[in-house]
Automatic annotation (TrEMBL), chain A:
Transmembrane segments: none annotated. The keyword Oxidoreductase applies. It comes from the Bacteria. Coiled coil: none annotated. Residues 1-21 are annotated as: Disordered. Residues 35-144 form the Aldehyde oxidase/xanthine dehydrogenase a/b hammerhead domain. Keywords: Molybdenum, Oxidoreductase. It comes from Cryobacterium sinapicolor. SUPFAM superfamilies: CO dehydrogenase molybdoprotein N-domain-like, Molybdenum cofactor-binding domain. Signal peptide: none annotated. The keyword Protein biosynthesis does not apply. This is Carbon-monoxide dehydrogenase large subunit.
TrEMBL record, chain B:
This is (2Fe-2S)-binding protein. Residues 1-77 form the 2Fe-2S ferredoxin-type domain. GO terms for molecular function: 2 iron, 2 sulfur cluster binding; metal ion binding; oxidoreductase activity. Signal peptide: none annotated. It holds the Pfam family Fer2_2. It comes from the Bacteria. The keyword Phosphoprotein does not apply.
Length: 797, 171
């Protein structure tokens, strides 16, 4: 039975030991959620609001011959039906993507994936809108689709994007990092080389709340309010201004409570734009909420990387180099969300956590007749794929050298004294103590005992596997000088006001989809200025109320906005010193800070608390030259570097020899995210990511048949782990603060999603070693494992 | 057609379209938006409510089928200012993140504890296995339910909690 630890119930409970600042406190947002009083997009009802529904293409590739909407328009309750032709007239048929491509809002010439948006019905209620979809007649002239990504670049392959001038093939980009000649030279002289094709199949983030919007256009003012499931309200506002021509100051984006994001709510989907168009056209607010199938079939997928990987080493196990060529399936429109200069995201951190002599990777992106997207699902801009590749290769190398995989890693990890460590593809890892984390996880797991147990079981014909992964993430994007999204630098603003009575409000640019920002950011302010977190309101998710910033994804909230909040609090603290000095008739340099209070050095009894100073600032105290009468500040934080959280994970699986069913028996996760603000929230983030890992490694897969039918379009086909598929997680931590971050925090949101799949697959492959298996691709479903056991492992795509 | 039911202890009679799902009736007509909707195939459980004390997926029940029954939604879990121990357990043990699956999880937990006041972890996992959570990884949900099992009478700290919530409980 779970042991329940007794602790302080509530931050408001006035417990003596309650931390002011960092520590485990209950979340400030929870009381509304447990009462069912969260405020999600679909909960919004505006006076006169209409409901929109999207007609989607049933086929993957076809020319659009004709659309007849007359019967739908005549259906009771239907107010309008919008097609691509209507949007052409408004110059809104195509919208720019986050990767400088364009995407059809509603199809005009062709449909390019199953589920693509074809028409938009607006009706008085959601049932009428859905009914009318059935009445729209579309004539499709079906074309051969490109589904197998390996054939996308074949001469004679159907050209998907003939809408783009001069386009004669399906090639999007080639991108490389590292030094290919140097790497080839190291490979040529290495004792041992292991090569493997490693596939990271297409998956979908599938947050429990699907995507949706309520658009409210006010024609007299020309003002748009858009309630949206958005992880990046400010970036969305700028893009909406560009797309719609509505001036940016007339657009307000509100991202209320969001039912999980995981990257799914970064992109701007046609549905959002259609709700806006619908509101402009009808003069009434329009709600659009996608259903689950629409979510799984049309919004951002993730991964879909076919990676040829190679690792070179000496015969004693010194890893020398890695290289990889990747074929990346970007679907029908290049709509991935990543910094402009990085079309493959941060995949070039595939050098992992090891001290190498050389590395090189080349990524080729192509179009296929599948849904667009690509960078989503807690992937830290493709670090997921990178870590999975290198951790698989290291395990295969261990197998080839007949070395224990833990020992091989311990031999090759970057050493603490090597930080800051410059890797061979251009990253500067800020800090780390890798060996300590790996040893800690081995200790928690009882690694040697597990290996002994495995041997005994093998002797009895039982299949037990132990898998390790060690990962380094690169998050907190990012420095403006080389990171932007569609031209917007990846810096974040923060504003802090201390009210006269010493209560505070901090306004942040990032937005929470469950990460607990209202608590964590209050704790950061609390730690810096000594006001308890319950006295600090965190405002987020509304562009009218918060400073500009790029949003929540890529584990960037704490690394970027967390830094902004710490710095703005320090600014206020510094200002408070001058005001306190005036109040105490002392010189500022004679004051000393203790949490919550400035006092006279050498005479601690003479001082002023933040509340007293706030009252002073707004009161009648004569303020020094240059200090205005408030206790407010604002900053914009441009990170000098990314942050590099890391971790060591160990997974123990049992495989049923009769059915191929994999059970994750234990999972040990040791994470280092630098300074820890709220350990409870950190643990929660890790648990969620580990569950994603089980999903991806064992269950989740968006598969297509050769016609391009999406076979993972419902929760009956796209399998999500429930409480029965995951173990009771065992978590631990080490703390290596980031040297360049104001509070040393590194971010934790995606670590476990990145780090866990390789640990699980390594464990499955380890369990299957008696069958001579050295690699199998995800998902390790019973059928696929069973096939592998019969000597026929096959790639999923 | 006309239906009558007891919802969170209050008797109601409403006019509905016969095909309306219970989840839409609760959300759109009664405006109790704590009950969520998350899939088309009866898999996710974000829509779970209690019908005569037993968990049902309200997306898979027609409003008409609830005629004459007693329905409890998340808005009916607390008694005035006093939270159900399950609600408090979820706050104590971080059983929620985005909060979207939470109402359904808590209602199932309430039904479980009503029938089995001291479940083991496996029984809790079994009970919530028809429901998905994408945020928590379930372990903290299990701990939350165990917290509620260990504190069946609720807590004294409700006044502060109510203050902290800053909201009226309307059910
Ligand atoms: S909405 Fe998913 S089971 Fe009811
Ligand atoms: S808390 Fe987000 S889905 Fe469960």
């Amino acid at each position: 039975m779970t042991i329940i630890e007794e602790r302080a119930a509530n931050p408001a409970a006035g417990d003596e030991n309650r931390p002011i600042g960092y520590g485990r406190i209950q979340r400030k947002e929870d009381p509304r959620f447990v009462r069912g009083k969260g405020h999600y997009v679909d909960d919004i009802v505006l006076p006169g609001m209409l409901h929109g529904a999207i007609l989607r293409s049933p086929v993957a590739h076809a020319r659009l011959v004709s659309i007849d909407t007359s019967a739908a328009l005549a259906h009771p309750g239907v107010v309008a039906v919008i097609t691509g032709q209507d949007l052409l007239g408004l110059k809104l048929a195509w919208a720019p993507t986050l990767s400088a491509d364009v995407q059809a809002v509603l199809a005009t010439d062709k449909v390019r994936f199953q589920g693509q948006e074809v028409a938009f019905v607006i009706a008085e209620d959601r049932y009428a809108a859905r009914d009318a979809l059935e009445l729209i007649e579309v004539d499709y002239d079906v074309l051969p689709p490109v589904i197998d990504v390996r054939t996308a670049l074949d001469p004679g392959a159907p050209v998907i994007r003939d809408d783009l001038e001069g386009r004669t093939d399906n090639h999007i980009f080639d991108w490389e990092a590292g030094n290919s000649a140097e790497t080839d030279a190291v490979f040529a002289s290495a004792d041992v080389v292991v090569s493997q094709e490693v596939v990271y199949p297409r998956v979908h983030p599938a947050p429990m709340e699907t995507c949706g919007a309520v658009a409210d256009f006010e024609p007299i003012e020309g003002a748009l309010t858009l309630y949206e499931t958005s992880q990046a309200p400010h970036a969305h506002r700028t893009l909406f201004a560009i797309v719609s021509g509505i001036p940016e100051h007339k657009i307000r984006i509100v991202s209320p409570d969001i039912g999980g994001g995981f990257g799914n709510k970064v992109g701007i989907y046609p549905g959002y734009i259609l709700a806006v168009v619908g509101s402009i056209v009808t003069g009434r607010p329009v709600k659009w909420m996608e259903d689950r199938s629409e979510n799984l079939m049309s919004t951002s997928f993730a991964r879909d990387y076919i990676m040829q990987g190679e690792i070179a080493a000496t015969k004693d196990g010194k890893i020398l180099a890695v290289r990889s060529t990747v074929l990346a399936d970007h679907g029908a429109f290049n709509a991935t969300a990543q910094p402009t200069k990085y079309p493959a995201g941060f995949f070039h951190i595939f050098t992992g956590s090891y001290d190498l002599q050389a590395a090189h990777c080349k990524v080729t992106g192509v179009y296929t007749n599948k849904a667009p997207g690509g960078v989503a699902y807690a992937c830290s801009f493709r670090v997921t794929e990178a870590v999975y590749l290198v951790e698989r290769l290291v395990d295969m190398l261990a197998h080839k050298l007949e070395m224990d995989p833990a020992k091989l890693r311990l031999m090759n990890l970057i050493k603490p004294e090597q930080f800051p460590y410059k890797n061979k593809t251009g990253w500067e890892y800020d800090s780390g103590n890798y060996e300590q984390a790996l040893r800690k996880s081995m200790e928690m797991a009882g690694y040697d005992d597990l290996r002994r147990e495995q041997q005994e079981k093998r002797a009895r014909g039982e299949l037990m596997g132990i898998g390790i992964s060690f990962f380094t993430e690169t998050v907190g994007a990012g420095p403006r000088k080389h990171m932007d999204i569609v031209g917007l630098g990846m810096a974040d603003g923060a504003e802090l006001r201390i009210h006269p009575t010493g209560k505070a409000v901090v306004r942040i640019s990032v937005q929470s989809q469950g990460q607990g920002h209202e608590t964590t950011f209050a704790q950061i302010v609390a730690e810096e200025i000594g006001i308890p977190p319950e006295d600090i309101d965190v405002v987020h998710g509304d562009t009218d109320q918060t400073p500009f910033g790029l949003g929540t994804y890529g584990s960037r909230s704490t690394p970027v906005s967390g830094a902004a909040v710490a710095l703005v609090a320090r600014k206020v603290r510094e200002k408070a010193k001058f005001i306190a000095a005036a109040m105490l008739e002392a010189r500022p340099e004679d004051l000393e800070w203790e949490k919550g209070r400035w006092f006279v050095k050498g005479d601690p009894s003479v001082g002023k608390t933040m509340a007293e100073i706030a009252m002073g600032a707004h009161g009648t105290v004569t303020l020094p030259e240059g200090i205005d009468g408030n206790l407010d500040a604002e900053v914009t934080y441009d990170p000098p570097n990314l942050t590099f959280p890391f971790g060591a994970y160990i997974c123990v699986v049992d495989v049923d020899p009769g059915t191929g069913h994999v059970t994750v028996r234990r999972f040990i996760a040791v994470d280092d995210c630098g300074t820890r603000i709220n350990p409870m929230i950190i643990e929660g983030q890790v648990h969620g990511g580990l569950t994603d890992g089980v999903g991806m490694a064992l269950m989740q897969f968006i598969e297509f048949d050769k016609e391009g039918n999406n076979l993972g379009g419902t929760f009956m086909d796209y399998l999500i782990p429930t409480a029965l598929e995951v173990p009771d997680w065992e978590t631990g931590f080490t703390v290596t603060p980031s040297p360049h971050h104001p509070i040393g925090a590194k971010g934790i949101g995606e670590s476990a999603t990145v780090g866990s799949p390789p640990a699980i697959v390594n464990a499955v492959v380890d369990a299957l070693a008696p069958f001579g298996i050295t690699h199998m691709d995800m998902p390790c479903t019973p059928a696929r494992v069973w096939e592998a056991m019969q000597g026929r492992p096959r790639p999923p795509i | 057609m006309q239906i009558s039911m007891t919802i969170n202890g209050t008797d109601i009679t409403e006019e509905i379209e016969p095909r309306v799902l219970l989840v839409h009736f609760i959300r759109d007509q009664l405006r109790l938006t704590g009950t969520h909707w998350g899939c088309d195939t009866s898999n996710c459980g974000t829509c779970v409510v209690l019908m005569d004390g037993r968990p049902v997926k309200s997306c898979t029940v027609l409003a008409a089928m609830a005629d004459g029954h007693s329905i409890t939604t998340v808005e009916g879990l607390a008694t005035g200012a006093t939270l159900d121990p399950v609600q408090q357990g979820f706050m104590e043990e971080h059983g929620l993140q985005c909060g979207f699956c939470t109402p359904g999880m808590m209602l199932t937990a309430r039904a479980l504890l009503d029938h089995n006041p001291h479940p083991d972890d496996g029984e809790i996992r079994e009970a919530i296995s028809g429901q998905m959570c994408r945020c928590t990884g379930y372990a903290t949900i299990v701990r939350s339910v165990q917290w509620a099992a260990a504190h069946p009478a609720g807590q004294d700290r409700m006044d502060e909690m109510e203050e902290n919530a800053g909201e009226e409980v309307t059910a």
